[in-house]
Amino acid sequence: MTNIESKITIQKPVADVYQFLADLNNHQQLMPENIYNWTSTTDEARFTIQNMAKLALKVSNRIENQEIQIIPAEEPPFAMELKWILQGDGDNTVATHQISADLNMMMKMLVSGPLQKLADSETSKLAEILNNR
C-alpha cells in the first residue's frame, strides 16, 4: 500500500474545517485545473482527471470534527482511500490529507508523484479558502 500525506495548519476552529470538508460539493474548490466534468452531492463526487481516469468517490465514514473517509463509489483503476484527519486546538486546526492506494511498482512510479502533488494542492487550497473567510 502506498501512503501519501499532506498536512497544513488552518486558522479556523475544527468545526468550521470539518463542516467544509464533510460536504463533497465543496471539494471541487480544492481540485487542480486538470480535473473536469465535476458533479457532486454532499456524499458523492464524480470527475475526470485529464489524461488519466474517471473517478466516482463517496464518503464512507464521518466522525464529527475528527475524520472524513472517502472511498471509490465505482470500480477504480486501483484500490484507494482518501482520508481527512482533523486536530483542533481552539482557533487553529491541523488538517492532514492522506491518500492510500494499492499500487504495483509500475503504477507507483507513474502516479505517486501526481498523487502527492494532488494532496499538497488540496491542503494548500483548503487553507487558502478557509483562512480568507
UniProtKB/TrEMBL annotation:
Question: Where on the tree of life does the source sit, at the highest rank?
Answer: Bacteria
Database matches in InterPro entries: START-like_dom_sf (IPR023393)
Task: Give the protein name, as stated in the record.
Answer: SRPBCC family protein
Species in which this protein is naturally found: Mucilaginibacter paludis DSM 18603
Its organism's taxonomic lineage begins at: Bacteria, Pseudomonadati, Bacteroidota, Sphingobacteriia, Sphingobacteriales
